[in-house]
From TrEMBL:
One of its GO terms (biological process) is cellulose catabolic process. It catalyses: Endohydrolysis of (1->4)-beta-D-glucosidic linkages in cellulose, lichenin and cereal beta-D-glucans. The chain crosses the membrane at residues 69-90. Belongs to the glycosyl hydrolase 9 (cellulase E) family. It comes from Triticum aestivum (Wheat). This is cellulase. Keywords: Carbohydrate metabolism, Cellulose degradation, Glycosidase, Hydrolase, Membrane, Polysaccharide degradation, Transmembrane, Transmembrane helix. Residues 107-485 form the Glycoside hydrolase family domain. It is an enzyme of class 3 (hydrolase). Its EC number is 3.2.1.4. One of its GO terms (molecular function) is cellulase activity.
């Protein structure tokens, strides 16, 4: 291992020497008397021992490691990155072709168009992304002369094919839109309409908050309508002048009511239900609840129990209210769901309320849900409370009564029980063959689908209609049949003006959020 021996000469013997010459140099006697050398002697004959390499260490602050080990660790990490990390990075950066979204089914497509109809009906200063390019700002001077409404009554929705803003059915529309979102938010999200439908609700509730002093705790009036139309009139108004809302150039008087138990109750229901939709926006939800409480208090005020439309020809012919006890039950239910305040559910389950509302009287027309009759919707809401929360005493007796009435209402939907007439095609004539039949078919189909979903959620397969057991699927089939007929009618009518009126009647009060769930 050393290039030179300290004793002189080379380690290797010249290979040219033969065996004899090598043997001549050996002292045989020495071989015979050979003995082990002691340590000192060995040190003379052998070179110095190999110097051991000292390990080098690296101080990492909290630990000291061998430098060689550290290098092994670094190389191991680098190797792992090359073998594992690098291929992953390359794979993730390879451009990928995005899959196309599946085409919407017919029910989803119908819902898209139904929601878009609300965009077309907007009044006021429209947002740039309204989605209806041929619509512009309109009604910008509505209520401009009202001293107590800053900025006037600008906004809201026009009704049907004219340019009047009827607050009673408008509030009902917002309540139903909110109810559909409360129950089916995930499905709205699945088809990309969740933000859209919430924007439509807010457009309506922002306007409804303008129709009374929503910052006060007590009010003495409620604005009920903007615009008017005289039957067979000869002066410019919203019926005499059949034109675009952007071109309105005639007076648009504002109606107000100092007593409005029905309208006040419906506005309270609209604001309360919307407050649930907007619970992720605490400030706005709180504002809606406050407004709902104020107008609910106004609706329930003693000595002010005259229906809002009575004696007013500007309203009575178009949206006459036949009762207000149904709005009391309806609004109290929504106020309870929005606030959890037991005073509302105590009132809703007070035995005197269903008696005054004739909820348990088995009156056929009271089983039909509409903008004028909220009883079937209210009893379903209260049945929901019993089915999901079951608050028990002291509410159980009344809630059980509402639940029984709801089941009876659902029985009447089936042709086999002959409660209502049906067309040859199968459309239920809930309004006994009078005009605008589609809105009644849609609204009551919505309740049917909801009740089916409620029962399925609590593992109830069906219910009895007398001796006949009706299943959840039976109820869904009825609801689906009505919607199919509605869509078929719209297709058959084509592009006529009548089609536009059909859409107005059927879609204006949207109750189709369940379409894709029942398909």
């Amino acid at each position: 291992m050393h290039s030179q021996n300290h004793w002189g000469g080379a380690f290797d013997i010249d290979g040219a020497e033969d065996d004899q010459s090598r043997n001549m140099d050996i002292d045989r006697g020495a071989l015979q008397h050979q003995h082990q050398l002691d340590e000192t002697q060995q040190s003379w004959l052998l070179g110095p021992p190999e110097a051991k390499k000292k390990d080098r260490y690296v101080d990492l602050g909290c630990v000291v490691v061998k430098r060689k080990l550290l290098w092994w660790m670094l190389w191991a990490v680098l190797g792992a990155f090359v073998l594992i990390g690098l291929p992953i990075i390359i794979a993730k950066n390879i451009p990928k072709k995005k899959p196309h979204a599946p085409p919407p089914d017919k029910y989803t497509d119908a819902l898209h168009k139904a929601l878009l109809f609300f965009n077309a009906q907007k009044s006021g200063k429209l947002p740039k992304n309204n989605g209806i390019p041929w619509r512009g700002n309109s009604g910008m001077k509505d209520g401009a002369d009202l001293p107590d409404v800053k900025g006037g009554l600008v906004g809201g929705y026009y009704d049907a094919g004219d340019n009047i803003k009827f607050h009673f059915p408008m509030a009902f529309s917002m309540t139903l839109l909110s109810w559909s979102v409360v129950e089916y938010a995930d499905r709205y999200k699945a088809i990309g309409e969740y933000d859209h439908v919430r924007e439509l609700i807010k457009w309506g509730t922002d306007y409804l908050l303008l129709t009374f002093n929503s910052s006060a705790s007590t009010i003495n009036k409620l604005y009920s309508q903007v615009g008017t139309a005289k039957i067979n009139g000869s002066t410019p108004d919203d019926h005499f002048c059949w034109n675009r809302p952007e071109d309105m150039a005639y007076p648009r008087p504002v109606q107000q009511a100092s007593a409005a138990p029905d309208l006040g109750g419906e506005v309270a229901a609209a604001l309360a239900s919307a407050s649930i939709v907007f619970r992720d926006n605490a400030a706005y939800s709180k504002k809606l609840v406050k407004g709902a409480a104020t107008v609910y208090k106004f609706a329930r005020a003693n000595g002010k129990r005259t229906p809002y439309s009575r004696g007013n020809p500007a309203i009575e012919y178009f949206y006459n209210s036949t009762s207000y006890w149904d709005e009391f039950m309806w609004s109290a239910s929504w106020m309870y769901y929005a606030t959890g305040n037991n005073s509302y559910i105590s009132f809703a389950t007070d035995p005197r309320l269903p008696k005054n509302a004739k909820a348990f009287f088995n009156i056929l027309d009271f089983s039909v849900f509409s903008w004028d009759n909220k009883l079937p919707g209210a009893t379903l809401l209260l049945s929901r409370l019993r089915m999901f929360l079951n608050p028990g005493y002291p509410y159980e007796e009344s809630l059980m009564g509402y639940h029984n009435v709801t089941s009876m209402n659902m029985c009447m939907y089936f042709p086999k029980f002959n409660a209502f007439n049906f067309t040859k095609g199968g459309l239920a004539q809930f309004n006994h063959g009078q005009g605008q039949a589609l809105q009644y078919a849609v609204a009551n189909s919505f309740l049917a689908a909801l009740y089916a979903d409620y029962m399925e959620s609590v593992n109830v397969p069906g219910w009895y209609c007398g001796p006949n057991f009706m299943t959840v699927d039976d109820l869904r089939s009825f609801a689906k049949s009505q919607v199919i007929l509605l869509l078929t009618d719209l297709i058959v009518v084509g592009t006529s003006t009548y089609k536009f009126k059909l859409i107005n009647c059927a879609m204006r009060r949207l109750t189709v959020s369940w379409w894709w769930s029942s398909s």
